[in-house]
Amino acid sequence: MFQSQFARTFCLIFSLPLLFLLAPHILPPRHVPISLPDELDDLALFNRAVATGLRSSSNPKSTFFRLGSTNPKFKIAFMFLTNTDLFFAPLWERFFNNSSKDLYNIYIHSDPSSNVKDPGGIFEDRFIPSKHTERSSPTLISAARRLLATAILDDSMNFYFALISQSCIPLHSFGYMYRSLFHTPFSWRPIKFRSFIEIQSNGSILHDRYYARGKNVMMPEVPFSEFRVGSQFFILTKKHAMLVLKDRKLWRKFRLPCINVESCYPEEHYFPTLLSMADSEGCSHFTLTRVNWTGSFNGHPHTYSPSEVSPPLIYELRQSNFTYDYLFARKFSPDCLTLLMDMADSVIIKD
C-alpha cells in the first residue's frame, strides 16, 4: 500500500516539470507575454523615433500643406504587417510602377518564425527588425508601433503611415491615392490633415471587449465611457504616429493578459481608444480599408475567392458612405492573384 502511494506521488512529482515543458507545444497559447528585454528594446526604438520626429517637425507649419508649395513632397509610408509571404507583391509592384519613388516608402514587419520570403523588386530589403506576433495579443500593437518608429527614423518626409496586411489589395492607382490623402481645395488657407482610423463607441461587442481583462482592470486610465473599438488597419498622420510612440499610460493597460480571450483583440482597441482620447477631432472615425464582415468566421472577415473576383467587385469595394472612396480592400485568398493581375491596368489602377 505504502509502496503504491509512493510510486504515484513520485510519478506526479516527476511529471510536473514534463507537463510545463510540453504544455506550450500541446495547448493553444492563451496569452503571449512580451519579455522585459523586448519591451526595453522597443522602448529605446520608440524614444529614438520620437526624438527624431520632434527635430524634423520643429517648424510648426510642417503639419500643413499648401497647393503649389515649394516644400519637398511629403511621402506615404506603406507598412505591411504579415506572418505569411506577400503573395500580392506583384500586384502592389504594378500599383507602384507608374508613381515617383520619392513619394512613398515600404516597410515590412514579418514574424521571424514564419520564414517569410523576400519577394524582391521594390520590396527587396524592406524588412525591418521584427519580433513574434500572435492574434488576440498585444504583440500586434508592438509590431505596428515598431513599423511606425522605423518609418519615422528612416525618412523625415514620411507623413502618412498606412498599415496594411498581406491580404490587402489596392483599389485605385497610387496617384489617385496620393491626391486623396494630400488633396487641397483651391484656397490659400493651410490644411490640417486627419488620420483615417475607425473609431466606434457603440455596439454589442463593446462591453465584453472592455471587461476581457477583468472587472475594473482598465481603470482609472481607461474608463468604459472612453473605450473604443475599430479596425486594425489605419492611415495615421505623423502627428498621431508620434503620439502613439510617446504613449506609456494606455499601453500599460492594453498589454495586460485577457481572461476572456474570445473577446480580446488589443490591436482593435488600443489605437482607436488612444487617438479618440487624445485627438478625436483629428481623426476621421472611419477606415479607408474595405472589409466584408458578412459571413465572418472565428473573428475573420469574408475571404474573397477567384470565383468572386471581377471588375464589378472592384467598383463595388471602392464605394463608401463617407467623403472618401475606399483605397484598400481585404481579405483576398492567394489564388486570386492571377485574376487581379489580369485586370490591374484596365480596372484596379485605372481611375
TrEMBL record:
- What keywords sit in the KW lines? Glycoprotein, Glycosyltransferase, Membrane, Signal, Transferase
Q: Which GO terms describe its molecular function?
A: glycosyltransferase activity
Keyword Glycoprotein part of the UniProt annotation? yes
Cellular compartments annotated: Membrane
Spell out the GO cellular component terms annotated for this protein, sorted alphabetically and separated by semicolons: membrane
Q: Which InterPro entries match?
A: BC10-like, Glyco_trans_14
Q: What is its main location?
A: membrane
Q: What is this protein called?
A: Core-2/I-branching beta-1,6-N-acetylglucosaminyltransferase family protein
Ranked from the top, the taxonomy reads:
Eukaryota, Viridiplantae, Streptophyta, Embryophyta, Tracheophyta
